[in-house]
Write a structure and sequence with these properties.
alpha+beta, 2 domains
Length: about 140
């Protein structure tokens, strides 16, 4: 494997070739190295002689490395919080709109019922007027 073959030792290279993609041949080994800036460099190696006497290695290094972009967690947290707050405000506005529309309908219905009522001046048979007219027969009306 890559770690046991390299193992941090300096190996003589017979040939170094930059390639476009990590094409692996049957007698070569695929390796991945992680750099300090979170990039992955792919390369394949194989020994140039079959009996491993010279320990010279042919390296095929992929020209383009894959770099992982770091994600700033603060932006994600702030985005989620802003989304929750904005969603809550939208729900409150929708609720207020529905309640306002319902209240206006109820008020219009109440006013329409008030206009439809006809108040008649009918007399109640149980009701007696509190004022009475009493005629005094002994009282004479004199004109001055």
């Amino acid at each position: 494997t890559c770690n046991t073959a390299c193992n941090g030792t300096v190996i003589d290279t017979a040939r170094v070739k930059l390639i476009e993609n990590s094409e692996q041949k049957d007698d070569s080994n695929l390796c991945i190295i992680y750099t300090d800036d979170n990039c992955r460099v792919f390369f394949t190696y194989r020994y140039s002689d079959a009996i491993y006497v010279t320990r010279k290695v042919d390296l095929n290094i992929m020209r383009k490395s894959e770099c992982v972009k770091t994600i700033n967690i603060l932006y994600i947290v702030l985005g989620v919080i802003a989304g929750i707050v904005l969603g809550g405000l939208i729900l409150l506005l929708i609720y207020k709109l529905v309640i306002t529309i319902d209240d206006r309908r109820e008020l219009a219905k109440f006013e329409q019922q008030g206009e439809n009522m006809r108040w008649e001046m009918a007399e109640n048979p149980i009701f007696e007027s509190p004022t009475t007219k009493v005629i005094n027969p002994t009282y004479e009306e004199t004109a001055y």
